[in-house]
Structure formats: structure tokens, C-alpha cells
Structures
1.
Amino acid sequence: MSELVLKIENLTKTYTLGKREVQPLTNLNLEIKKGEFTAIMGPSGSGKTTLLNIMGCIDKPTKGKVLLDNVDIGELPESQLYKIRRDKIGFIFQSSNLLPYLNARENVELAMELAGKFSGQRSERANELLATVGLSGRESHRPQRLSQGEQQR
Ligand SMILES: Nc1ncnc2c1ncn2[C@@H]1O[C@H](COP(=O)(O)OP(=O)(O)O)[C@@H](O)[C@H]1O
Ligand SMILES: [Mg+2]
């Protein structure tokens, strides 16, 4: 069980705003193995969200390598990145980003539909998953009727 799922080598991220540059990440190195839980801690503005966005294939490194299952995601075009986001990344945002006009079950089903999975049994599977996170009975509630923590679950 020492398989590396994520390896980051000398990652630098620079944002350019007009003439001003902000560099929240400089030569960062990190390895995460399969099955490991890792917490990233630091003060506000230290680059946590920047790092998570890069790990989650939402943003690109300025320099350095990010290897996810041995694939350098910095080299991939958007046409490949979306598949990695869809199939390999689970992202719980601070604000949940659920679709407000879909209920809890339909929001869960949407991800299965986009991935082409569980065809013909999406509702049942979504109900099972909602039960797993303690949300039985809330399947038909829209996000606005759920607390922020419930939305994240
Ligand atoms: N898109 C952006 N353009 C310019 N600067 C940014 C952008 N995103 C984040 N920053 C800057 O990068 C630094 C790190 O931000 P962030 O990763 O959000 O920190 P944290 O999540 O640790 O609070 C901050 O100084 C922030 O202002
Ligand atoms: Mg943040």
C-alpha cells in the first residue's frame, strides 16, 4: 500500500494582475499515497485553495509537475482534464455549488448521468448514497431547504 496517487514536484503558481504578480506557491513538493488522508493547513491567503484547484484539475501550474496516477496533468488539454475531474476527483466546495432547481436526489443523479453510470437505476443509487451520508428523507428537498453542511454531504 505505498502506491503514489499524487506527486507534486517543484510546483510554482503565479497569478499576474496587470503589472502585479502574486505567487502563493513556490517550489512546493508533496506526495500522497493511496488510502492516505492529508490535511492542508495554513493562514488565509497562503495558497490552500490555489493548491486544491491545481490538484483538482481546475487550474494549471505555472511551473513544476503534478502527477496524478502517474499522468502529468499540467500537460493535458482541457478535453482530457474534464474526464479526470469527472472520473477521479471528488470536490467538496465551501459553498456547495448544487443546482438550485434540482432536489437532493436529482443533484446526485446528475453526476451519474454526466459520467454515464448506473443507467436505469440512478434514483435508487442516489437514494442509497444520500442514506449513506445520513440524508434519508431529504431526497426531494432542494438545496435551499438544506443546511450548508447537509448541502456539502
Ligand atoms: N485568480 C487569482 N488572481 C490573482 N490572485 C489570486 C487569484 N486567486 C488567488 N489569488 C491570490 O493568491 C493568494 C492565495 O490565495 P488562496 O489560494 O485563495 O489562499 P487560501 O485558500 O489559503 O486562503 C492570495 O494572495 C490571493 O489573493
Ligand atoms: Mg481558500
Note: The CA atoms of residues 135 and 150 lie 8 Å apart.
2.
Amino acid sequence: MSDPYANLGAAAQDIQIAIADAMDARSIDPAQVTMRRAYMSGISLPRGAFAVEMGSGTGHVTRDLITVAGASRALGIEPAALMVERAHQHHADEPALSFEVGDAKACGLESGSVDMVLMHTLLCHVPGPDAVMTEAFRILKPGGVLAVFDGDYDTATVAIGDFDPLEPVVKYMIDANVHNLWLPRQLVPLAAAAGFTTGEVQAHGYLASGEAAYFMSVIDRALTKMQADGLLTPAGADGLREEARTRIAENRFFGFMSYTSMLATKPA
Ligand SMILES: C[S@@+](CC[C@H](N)C(=O)[O-])C[C@H]1O[C@@H](n2cnc3c(N)ncnc32)[C@H](O)[C@@H]1O
């Protein structure tokens, strides 16, 4: 399975821009905001806490570390320079936020220097997620908090009936963009193996609403790729794009997937 997110900085510029746009669109989707609040707002951090998001993309979720989780300072670590540049542009108004190019497997922060580590839709894209867990464990202070949130992409569906032609379009995109489909179902033993004490695990149902911006971006990117891969003619891709848009216009579009969150702590 190829996954451009696993080495985003090496992807073609137009693909990186499309992915950055999709991250921006997803971050303001009200249902996505609700899910982030659901798993982050109960976290209790010490005064003056320093939090790190690994795999911060365009930085919107890193900002939640301050506004929702209550950290005083937050750093986003992200290997793709284009994403870091966009994060700087979006969040220049918040001096407590910073972003750096770096790798979650070897981030360069001091051992025991961080109060909270967040991985929001990162781990399913990373070959060798155990190395990311080990690095998070290393940089956290004793008693520090780990929060992980990832898509359970096998549950993603847009079908409104048997043999719905939009369904394989979504499956195609997931197959081409998610390195480990089963990661959310493997999280607890993964964290425990790195030494964490695992806490609350929650499922979050995500139902597309309104313009369904996230599912539309998935469908559009899938159709572009299916066309590039020789599976669809331009007319075929346009027809399916039109089908999705018509369902939105007629209020017949359905899009659902489940996400999983897990909280854990480094033993004191
Ligand atoms: C799906 S995006 C999520 C971005 C952001 N957390 C959000 O939800 O908007 C996954 C991000 O993880 C980054 N990533 C992939 N491998 C990484 C690694 N080894 N270390 C740090 N980040 C990585 C990708 O470049 C990408 O920006």
C-alpha cells in the first residue's frame, strides 16, 4: 500500500498542496472540532505545561493543545516543509505556538521535557509506529499524557444502497493513503509495549453534513488518482464527481466513518 503521508515532503508539490487544503478543510469541519474536544477537553495538565503534536500538518490541531487541552506552550513537529510553512502562516497570531521540521521517531527534544504528546491522525500513516511511541515515552515527563486519535478507515462508507458506485471510490482513496488500516485497533497494546499506562479509549462516529467538505476532498482526490492510474476516463471521473455533487445538492449524500481516541500516561 503506498501512502503519500508517510513521506509527504517527497510527494509532488500539487499533491502536497491538495493534502494541505484537505487538512485545512477537515480541521474546521464542526463534527471534527467536536471529536477533538471530546477527547482533549478532559485532559488535565499542570500549570505552564508544554505540549507537542507529532505530525502536525498545517497546525490546526496543535493549536487545540493550547485552546482545548490547556497547555501554555505547544510545538508542532512535521517532516514536510510545505506543511510547516503553512502552519506558520495560519498561526502567526499565536506566540505560544511554534512549528518545526522534524521526525516523530527522533524529534531531538530532551528526555523528560514534555507534559503532553499528541498524535492526531498520524500513526496509521507511519511505518514502524512503535518507534514513534518509544520517542513519545522518552520525551514525556513522568506522569505526562499521551493522546492518540486515528481514523478507523475500514469503517468509512458513502454507500446509500447495494453496489453504490461511489463506495469503491472512497475505498480506493483509503487503500492508497493509509499505511496501516488496522492501527486504531492495535493502539492499546502498542502503547503498553512502549511502557505507557493506557487509559480511556473512545470511539467517535463522524457523519458528514452540509457540503461534506472532507468526503468531497476524498472523492475528488480518489477520482484524480483513478484517472491518472488509467481506471477512469476524464468523462467517467467527471460523471462520478457530478454524482457526489448532485447528492449534496439534493440532500441525499451520506458519509460516515469511525475514529478512535486513546489517552495514556507515562508512569510517575
Ligand atoms: C493526516 S496528516 C495529519 C496532520 C494533522 N495532525 C491534522 O490532523 O491536521 C499526517 C501528518 O503526519 C506527518 N508525518 C508522517 N510521518 C511522520 C513522521 N515520521 N514524523 C512526524 N510527522 C509525520 C505527515 O507529513 C502529515 O502531515
Note: DSSP finds nine helices and seven strands in the chain.
3.
Amino acid sequence: MLTLAVQTDKALDIFTRVIRIRRFEERIATLFNQGQLPGVVHLYIGEEAIASGVCAALRDDDYIVSTHRGHGHVVAKGGDFNRMMAELFGKATGYCKGKGGSQHIADFEIGMLGACGIVGGGIPIAVGAGFSARYRETDQVAVSFFGDGASNEGSFHESLNLASVWKLPVIFVCENNGYGEFTPTSKVTSVTNIADRSAGYGMPGIVVDGTDPIAVYEVAVKAVARARRGEGPTLIEAKTHRRGGHSEGENAFLGGQKYRSAAEEAEARAQDPLLKIRAYIVENRLATAEKLDAIDREISQAVDAAVTFARNSPDPEPSAVFEDVWA
Ligand SMILES: Cc1ncc(C[n+]2csc(CCOP(=O)(O)OP(=O)(O)O)c2C)c(N)n1
Ligand SMILES: [Mg+2]
């Protein structure tokens, strides 16, 4: 049940974040399957409630750190479609000048400190950002998004311990989609609820329906307030569903998602964050379906424009290959 009166503007804000991610990702899927994008892409479709609900609870100057499944986090924090799309096409106008691709998008201007291809690799970075905020005596907070698989990495455990000891303004958001690649979480994880691991580190642990954008927003608001007050970190476990495969194109080389049942796939479709936020807004008469459709159309046009921008952008110069390299 909804406990917080989420006002119209905030509900529309959350809806907009969800649908921006959805439409961007749907286009990425199409482009990838047409062979137009180099590299590999891990889509966030089905999990949009988490980045959207959490980022709607943040200020512009707060930090987030992302994962290999990172497009949704960038979009939810206010990332630029053109620069994202250009990066995915490997163009010089992309966020990393076309040299990073899907798993390395960062935008310091909006507090997005980076995606990370190393599972669990982003978690200590968020702790560092939280420490920085404390050291500089700002009241910024840092959010670490990571998967259920990452919660079995040492970096998760070390990060929670240090953040708790120093009462850092960090929110750990575990996106539990039930799988690490093709392995069910239950086969490799010692607890049913990853949120229970918070007890070992002396911080609150909360389980939330990670397919419900409003529910995620409500728990994020509380965790952010606690962090800003200097009371320390929170672990939020958002239980969700990955709509597609681990990475796009998996169906082609695996012959379908053989590791999960048709019933489970249907459940993932039914628990659709986009349908949930639409229903919340329309049923509570916060806005009409027509208004939501108009926002949807506008976003689809922005995605079209981003594809055109990316296609018309130049490739990076070969001579630039050693620029921006730190080794
Ligand atoms: C340290 C490390 N180990 C293994 C991998 C290969 N790998 C990439 S994604 C992934 C699964 C991660 O699962 P989870 O953290 O649950 O995130 P999800 O993909 O479900 O969003 C693995 C094992 C990696 N990139 N980094
Ligand atoms: Mg997972």
C-alpha cells in the first residue's frame, strides 16, 4: 500500500524517468539486433522502477554509481540521449568519445560517476563519493546500484562495513533480478533476502517491490533523509525482474532463455513498472492517459533524434586512440 502522498509533479517526474528508460532501451534492442551497435548491451527493461524511484528522491548534486546494466541509471539521473546514443554507436560525440561503449558511460556534470563492467566494482566508488561529501562537509549523498550477484563479491561486504563504521551518506541499492547471468540467485546466495546482510554491518536493510516505482521512491526518500542527517547508510534490496536475457542477443546464441520457465517470463512481463506507474497516475487522477501518451510521444521523438544525431556524428580519429588513457 502507498503510504506517502506522492504529488502530481513527482508522480509525473517518476513516470517520465521510467518511460525515458523504456523507450531508449527498446530502441537499443532494435538497433543491436539489426547489427548496428558494436559491443554488447545489457538492458534494464523490467527494472526501470528502481533507478527511476531512487533518482527521483535525489538532488541533482547527489552521486550515483552504476553497473554493466547501466543505461537506466544514466537516463534516470538526467543523462543526455544524444551523447548516450552516440557512445553506443562508437562515435566521437559520445560520452566517452566513442571509446567506452555501453559499460563505461559517465557524466560527472549530473553526478553520474560511471557504469562499471566489473561486477561489484562500483560499490567502493560510491563509498568514496560518500566519504568525499563528508570530508568536504556537504550534505550530498551517494547511491550505489548493483546486482544480486555483486552482493556475493568481497567489495560489497567491505564497502558496507566501512560505510557503516564511518556513518557515510551512502545508499546501497541491490537490484535483485533473480539471476547472475544464467544462474539463479538462490543457487549462489546464502540468504533469501539480501537485505538481511545489513544486520552484519549494523545498518537498516529494507526489502521493496522493485517493480513498483512509487514503492521504491518511498523507501529511497527515507534512506536519503537518513543519510543526509548523518545517520549513515541503508541497504535497500529491490526485488525485480529482468525482462530479457542477461545481455541482448542472448536468444540468438542460446536459443532462448532455456534457464527459466515460460511462466516466469510471463510473470516478469506482468510485473511491468511502466504499467504500474501509469495505473497509479491515472487511477489517482493525477493526470489523464492522454497526457501520459503525449509525454511518451515526445520521448520517442527524442530517441529518434538521438539516433539521427549518432548516425550523423563522426567516428573517432584513429590518432585519438591514446588520448584519455590512464595506465
Ligand atoms: C568481477 C566480475 N566477475 C564476473 C563478471 C562477468 N559477469 C558480468 S555480469 C555478471 C552477472 C552479474 O549479476 P548481477 O550482479 O546479479 O547483475 P545483473 O546482470 O543480474 O544485473 C557476471 C558474472 C564480471 N564482469 N566481473
Ligand atoms: Mg542479477
Note: The radius of gyration is 19 Å.
4.
Amino acid sequence: MSALLPQWKEYTVTLETLSPLHIGATRDVFTSIENSIVRLQNQAIVPSTTLKGAWRNQIERFLIGEYFDASKKEWRKAGVQPCIPGRASDDEKRILNDKQWVEAKKRVEIREYREYKEPCTYNKYGDPICPACYLLGAQTLLGFVRVPFLKLAEGQGRTDEELYSLRIDRETETGVEGANRSWYVVNEKIKFVGTLQVLQRDDLRHWTLGQARNLGARGKVDRWLDDPAWSAQTIYEKLIKGCLENIQVIGGFRSKDCGKVKITVTEK
Ligand SMILES: [Zn+2]
């Protein structure tokens, strides 16, 4: 094998639903169809974007918990601050998915709102890339992981078993089981599985997992890796396996107790 081929390591990611799961079929607030869920070949799936969003959120929580001194309001290490000010919080995302809010606003206002919520930019020399963007990517800069779509652990013919419908009472906004098949969810105790790929090294680009990248004219961008406490192994244990396995909810209808999950990551 050529030494110039990027070397990837593969992990199995398993997600089990602990409560009904709803992942809407579109993220576009302007064409939002409330009732459908994401499917591939008529089977429910967990899209990589959904998993990635939940993972990023978990990395942010981890970094704040580990490195932010709340009493002094300062970061204990350089470069570990996740680009949260540049990203929509869960509440903000909920607002962006609220049809009434969106309809009441002009498109330009929504665009401004969204553009404010962008991850690390690295436009200027010395702009740092945060640990979340190191792994998951920032704008056009690739990260070290390829996040998979999670598919049903057991193959075809499971649609009836995996799905049931909730009827939402408009007045109380609570979900009740019923014949009105207007809101689809994936049943609990359904397993989804996918293969996560983690780049170990790419000699062509001079990238090695656990080491800071030098992006030519933009200089060294991954300042947080100057801390010798970080290695490829600690990145895997804390940010990859640790954060993925700490994801507890995913998708929509959380106020209706939907989206509780258990995620496990194992070496292939
Ligand atoms: Zn970032």
C-alpha cells in the first residue's frame, strides 16, 4: 500500500432508541413538512447530519465542563473554546424550526440570524480551529472523521415494526397514540448501526491525528494540541467515544419525551 494513501481506522457506532424517535425529513424551515421522518429506500435512518449535530453539541459541553472556569469566566487552556458563539443553541434551532416565528420574520432577518451562527472561520492568519471543528470539519476545511448514516441493524421488511404514529393534541401539545397517522416516529428498542471512519494520518497533507495542522499561509490552526495532554488516544477516548456515548437525546419532539437514545462505539 502506498504510504501516500490516507490511513483510516473504522469503528462501529450503534444507536438504540430508548423512546420514540422523530427526525424530520427536512431541515429547511421554508418547506418544512412536519409529519415525515428521514428515510432511505423506505427504511428509517439516522442521517449523518443529525448525528454530527448531536456530537458537536456534546463536544462543546465536554470542553466547557473540562476547561471553562465559570467563577473566573475564563478558559484554563488556549484554543479549546468551542465556537459556540458562532452556532445556534438548541433553543435557537427550535426558533428556526418554528413555522410561526419564521413566517413572521422577513427572509433577510432569518439569513442574518443564521449567518451569525457559523462555526470556526480561519479566514485570517492565526485564526484557531476549535477541537469540535478539528474533528468534524469547519467550512471547507475537512475534519478527521467521516460521520456515517446509521441504518437499521436488521435489514429489510421492518418498516411497520420500526414506525408508529403519534397524534399531537394541538391544545396541550402532547403526543397521544392514535389512528391519525400524522406524526411519524421510530419505535423504541430499534437499533441503528453505521461505520465511523477516523483519519489516522495523511502523509500527503502532513496531517496526523492528535497533531496540530499547519495550513501554509494561515499558519498553525490547531493551537489546543500544543497541550501535551492530548494524543490520538485521548482524542479517541474523550472526544470520539466519550462524547458520542454521552449523547442522550437526538431529533425532534423532545418535549414529548421523544429521542432518548443509547449510543455505543466499538473498534471494528
Ligand atoms: Zn469550531
Note: Helices lie at 48-67, 90-96, 99-104, 107-116, 131-136, 159-162, 232-245.
